[in-house]
Design a protein that fits this description.
InterPro entries: ARM-like, ARM-type_fold, PUM-HD, Pumilio_RNA-bd_rpt. With 469 residues, this protein is mostly helical. Among the domains are: 4-106, no CATH class; 152-247; 394-469, no CATH class. It has helices at residues 4-16, 44-47, 85-97, 152-156, 162-173, 177-189, 191-195, 200-210, 213-223, 227-231, 236-247, 251-261, 265-269, 272-284, 294-299, 301-304, 310-320, 323-340, 346-356, 359-371, 373-377, 382-393, 399-402, 411-416, 421-429, 436-444, 447-455, 460-468, and strands at 19-26, 29-36, 58-60, 66-68, 106-108, 114-116, 405-406, 409-410.
Length: 469
């Protein structure tokens, strides 16, 4: 605690209003340090003591300290500064004893703005600032006066920084030619690394979208020899697509691109990201330049049919080329058809063939679906195949299956209470096919069964449709 003489000096300072004392704790000994005070002295210990002013507005800072501004109630409490001296001293002592709860010293400048002094933290990362008090003005490196600005720090943080890349893309979309040139010069130096980066790849893509013809060509020339490495990367494969969009109208450049890709074509077809690049080739380039890929696709068909983009490559090839060039692909698909019906991506190939495939292959698939109707209908992906079958072929050939007995119960009942089979039942009931009339008459003969369907978790909607029949 302060000595008696020190307390008297402090009391004299408060009465005079000319000086301000701050008690500093050093090595468990308190020292009274004289500081130049402002005019209209206010006791900060009172303003910032949450027990004295519990209604002051508070906001949470990035280090979880709670700072009470006291700004809005400063005038209100100015008249209360004539509290008795012993109370003022006691409050000052209380504040010293509670320094662990207020880690930073705050002061208001002449404009009432909050200034915050805090010790430097290791590994400190800039975080977005949430402005909770409109009367206080904060500045941030990320946004200055709501205007985009470009700094050297931004250019050095292209890789791994989402906010910086969004900022650079916004600048590239703007009309500042000089800023665009500065961004391009920096990206050009690290284009390979940036193309593989989770966030940097978007900036590289943006250059291919809005850059000058010369900038696009320079970027293309830097990346073309790394096309295989880029195509197998989950982020860079999007950049490769932009490269293809850039050259798609230049036959000579497309030929060079495909020649570079040719030695690794088999590896790309057996890679999920590589399939994305192959799909882009069929979507952007002339199909006559891609015929050489068909034999490689035939050899990789089983893998590709199970992949997100691989199955789309197969559908695109069947769509673009005549049956004479795709017959071997169709033959292989028919040997896999029973498996593809149950697969997450393979079922889309089956649906495509039901809609647009040759009659022979379509008939084979229809036979597979009828022979495995119930098992497919209660499968998450198989039920999609059955629904497409009903859309294309109608329900007339499956009514007898629905009315048959399986596991001591009608098939239509088993499907109605199933989480996936109920969709098949709804598709049958709303089809409007004349053959459904027989099925409706059968349902009316089993009211108890219909009630059990309505009471089940997944059969409620089926029951509503039955009521409307």
């Amino acid at each position: 605690m302060a000595s008696q003489s020190e307390e008297k000096d402090l009391i004299g300072s408060i009465l005079s209003g000319n000086d301000e004392f701050v008690i500093v704790d050093q090595d468990d000994k308190q020292e009274i340090v004289l500081k130049k005070a402002r005019k209209n002295l206010s006791l900060k210990s009172k303003e910032f003591d949450p027990q004295i002013h519990p209604k002051h507005q508070e906001f949470q800072t990035s280090n979880a300290s709670i700072l009470s501004t006291g700004y809005q109630s400063q005038l209100k409490h100015q008249q209360k500064f004539s509290l008795n001296l012993s109370s003022a001293l006691q409050q000052t002592a209380d504040q010293d004893n509670n320094t662990s709860s207020i880690d930073h010293f705050q002061s208001f400048d002449s404009f009432g703005q909050l200034q915050r002094k805090q010790s430097t933290k290791k590994h400190h990362t800039m975080q977005p600032i949430e402005y909770q008090n409109s009367s206080l003005v904060f500045t941030s490196d990320q946004c200055i006066e709501s205007k985009l600005s470009l700094s050297q720090t931004d250019l050095e943080q292209i890789c791994g920084n989402q906010l910086i890349n969004r900022k650079l893309q916004n600048i590239l979309d703007g009309n500042d030619i000089n800023a665009k040139r500065v961004i391009f010069n920096q990206v050009e130096k690290i284009c390979l690394k940036a193309s593989k980066d989770m966030f940097g790849n978007y900036t590289v893509q943006k250059i291919f979208e809005v850059g000058t013809q010369d900038q696009k060509q320079r970027m293309y020339n830097l990346l073309i020899n790394q096309i295989f490495d880029l195509s197998k990367n989950q982020y860079a494969c999007r950049v490769v697509q932009k490269m293809m969009e850039f050259i798609k109208d230049h036959t000579q450049l497309v030929d060079i691109f495909l020649q570079i890709m040719y030695p690794q074509i088999n590896q790309l077809l057996n890679d999920s990201n590589g399939n994305y690049v192959i799909l882009s080739c069929f979507e952007l380039f002339n199909k006559n330049q891609l015929i050489f890929m068909i034999p490689y696709i035939e050899d990789s068909l089983q893998f590709m049919s199970k992949q997100t983009y691989g199955c789309r490559v197969i559908q695109k090839v069947l769509e673009l080329y005549p049956i004479e060039q795709t017959q071997r692909i169709l033959d292989i698909l028919m040997t896999l058809a029973s498996q593809l019906c149950y697969q997450e991506f393979g079922n889309y190939i089956i649906q495509y063939l039901l809609k647009s495939g040759p009659p022979k292959e379509k008939q084979i698939i229809c036979s597979i679906i009828k022979d495995n109707f119930e098992q497919l209908s209660i499968n998450k992906f198989g039920s999609n195949t059955v629904e497409k079958y009903i859309d294309i072929m109608g329900p007339n050939q499956i009514i007898t299956i629905l009315c048959s007995i399986s596991n001591d119960q009608f098939v239509f009942y088993n499907l109605s209470i199933n989480p996936f089979g109920n969709y098949v039942m709804k598709k049958v009931l709303i089809s409007g096919d004349p053959s459904v009339q027989y099925f409706k008459s059968l349902l009316k003969q089993y009211p108890d069964l219909i009630q059990r369907i309505k009471n089940s978790d997944f059969g409620q909607r089926v029951g509503l449709i039955m009521d409307a029949l």
